[in-house]
């Protein structure tokens, strides 16, 4: 965390606190608050994380700034069932920064909060290793069941499962896909993620065609929220929405009592399926766009390769 000087003028502090209590603020507001020390992506993270905390505080009718120790502790407990430890850690970093910048006592430093966080980290240790694998046969079963549906939600969710598995997408990558990232070619469609262009299968291309036909979207987010009346919204999918889509996959497959899928599950399952088909850890790493072979090695059960890769990656970071 970069050193941001606290606001010292009492009037400016009061004004800023009133502003940030609202939650929904522009990137320019965050740029000013953080004194221009952070990139746009970092500001987007702060903006999203603070909004999550403010919305929780509104739900339970407590003040977000300054926040009480109990409110922060209960926030962690509430989000621990839906979020990964890394996401919750990021939330707490943002909450801490907001209090320090405004010269307020930092509730995240209290022993109750630290104890709750440490307990959470222990419970979620090696969370990725524990993620249930979502395999190709799971995707095939869901496709057979839902591909002829005329319900918007069925086609959207099937498209999500398909893209996540075929392209080994992270939740953040999935949520960020825009209409223009889907490119039609003479062979079907490709998906552009950062600098990588991935050809989609005929099944995925057919779902894209159907999705465009049903929604008539021509710009903006590819995957969006759908209300209970089957009406498509403008807002993109968030992490909670994606979590619910993968929880639904287990329900549709009739395995909700034994398997719990998460947004990480397709990357785990695809890694294992690719390994079973003969691909090397290095090839799986490239296909999944990992910086290090450590994670795909862990997913396919190669602990020695994972540990060696992790040590090598850490040494590289130290040199950098």
TrEMBL record:
Residues 148-303 form the Tyr recombinase domain. GO terms for molecular function: DNA binding. It comes from the Bacteria. Residues 285-320 are annotated as: Disordered. Gene3D superfamilies: 1.10.150.130, Intergrase catalytic core (1.10.443.10). This is Phage integrase family protein. Residues 304-320 have a biased composition (Basic and acidic residues). It comes from Grimontia marina. Keywords: DNA recombination, DNA-binding. One of its GO terms (biological process) is DNA integration.
């Amino acid at each position: 965390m970069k050193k941001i000087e606290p606001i010292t003028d009492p009037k400016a502090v009061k004004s800023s606190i009133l502003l940030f209590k609202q939650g929904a603020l522009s990137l320019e507001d965050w740029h000013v608050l953080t004194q221009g020390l952070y990139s746009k992506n970092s500001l987007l993270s702060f903006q999203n994380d603070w909004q999550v905390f403010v919305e929780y505080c509104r739900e339970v009718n407590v003040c977000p700034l300054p926040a009480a120790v109990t409110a922060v502790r209960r926030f962690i407990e509430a989000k621990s069932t839906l979020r990964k430890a890394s996401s919750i850690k990021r939330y707490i970093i943002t909450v801490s920064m907001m209090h320090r910048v405004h010269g307020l006592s930092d509730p995240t430093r209290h022993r109750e909060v630290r104890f709750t966080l440490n307990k959470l980290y222990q419970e979620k240790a090696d969370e990725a290793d524990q993620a249930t694998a979502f395999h190709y046969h799971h995707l095939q079963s869901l496709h057979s069941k839902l591909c002829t549906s005329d319900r918007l939600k069925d086609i959207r969710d099937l498209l999500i499962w398909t893209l996540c598995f075929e392209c080994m997408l992270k939740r953040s990558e999935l949520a960020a896909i825009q209409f223009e990232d889907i490119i039609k070619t003479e062979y079907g469609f490709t998906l552009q993620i950062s600098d990588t262009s991935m050809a989609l299968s005929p099944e995925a291309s057919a779902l894209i065609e159907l999705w465009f036909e049903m929604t008539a979207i021509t710009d903006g987010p590819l995957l969006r929220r759908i209300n209970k009346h089957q009406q498509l919204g403008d807002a993109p999918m968030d992490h909670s929405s994606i979590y619910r889509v993968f929880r639904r996959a287990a329900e549709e497959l009739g395995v909700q009592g034994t398997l719990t899928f998460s947004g990480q599950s397709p990357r785990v399952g695809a890694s294992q399926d690719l390994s079973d088909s003969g691909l090397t850890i290095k090839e799986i790493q490239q296909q999944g766009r990992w910086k290090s072979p450590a994670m795909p090695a862990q997913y396919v059960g190669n602990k020695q390769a994972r540990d060696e890769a992790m040590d090598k990656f850490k040494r590289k970071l130290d040199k950098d």
